[in-house]
Prior knowledge:
This protein is an alpha/beta fold. It is built from 14 helices and 15 strands.
Amino acid sequence: MRRFSANYIFTNTGKPIRNGVVEVDDNGVVVDIIEHIDGVKEYAHTEFRNGIIVPGFVNAHCHTELSHLKGKVEPKTGLASFVNQIRNHRLDGLRGEELSISRAIEQITQQGTVAVADICNTSDSFSAKQKSGVKFINLVEVLGIESEKADSILERAKVISEVSANQLGMPAYITPHSVYSLSAKLWERLSGALKNCPIVSIHFAESLDEARFTNERAGGIYDNYVEWGLPFSDAPSASPVNILKSYLPKDCRLLLVHNTFMDELQLCEVKDYFTNTYLVLCPSSNLYIEQTMPNVPMLSASGVKIALGTDSFASSPTLSIFDQIQLILTHFPLIEFTQVLQWATIYGAQALGLEHSLGTIENGKKPGLNLISPFNFSEMKPYPHSKVKPLL
Ligand SMILES: [Zn+2]
């Protein structure tokens, strides 16, 4: 049993509790939250810290298996060039290895992240995950623009999903990579497999080139396919939102990842059709690849829930969710910290289907506890130099 206290406890279930105390059992499960409303202060056996205590963070989009590409992809070149560079590294035989993945997971843990939605194109990351205390939701991404390969691509994804089930105790969910990288045949095959899938996660509006390819057969992604000699005539030819609507169940738990170039019309179309959508923002990756931030105030005002992710070390210098919070607060000073904290915790937990145990500090949950220090109490937000540290 341990007791933690700080200047404020942000439970995410009400107003921050001044000088509150959180008591957890030996497994990290919250057993009591003491508010001191009667003026009697209980500090016996309590570890008091300067700063604030918040729930553990949830990373709603990562690719730990790409950790070996840290520093190997040229920044600020746009998505089409990024995809090309990743493809070249793969063709050169550069593969994920356990050491870089283990180191990445160690950093993720030290930066206060307790759960990650992790994209897997291979089973390279599974051994490192077995040794970690982080909760991983594994998503096997399928992509392939050539129709004749659709069946083999889906079969391979099913094999990786089974390996995950055998090695990690839960299957990896099969999910589409993006609207521009699957043939219609692969979409159709996948669409059947997605009917009972709890999560669909897809890269979306990460670049203007996506819609230019699907709508007009033009732009950087189109140029890549021509240069690579890939037959793309069978790829769906429609607007990105219409492609989603054609193949995904209306009520699926839909994680749209990036939304860097999402406009109001697209957002309305998504909101009008899909009933359980999360907009996953990965600001450090967007700045690395496209030098652009999503229109966070517009996305936030829509009422569609937002969660935070990092993408991989191939496109982001950091896998820290706290760094994503800081980037959003720096670029959009009118957005409140308490709101972004919800995106980083409870909405991320909901996006991953883990809200029963993570995201808020409540009795019976095991959310992890993070200390943010120092903290700007007059503006109720972190300083640019604030640090996060897990307490458990
Ligand atoms: Zn990604």
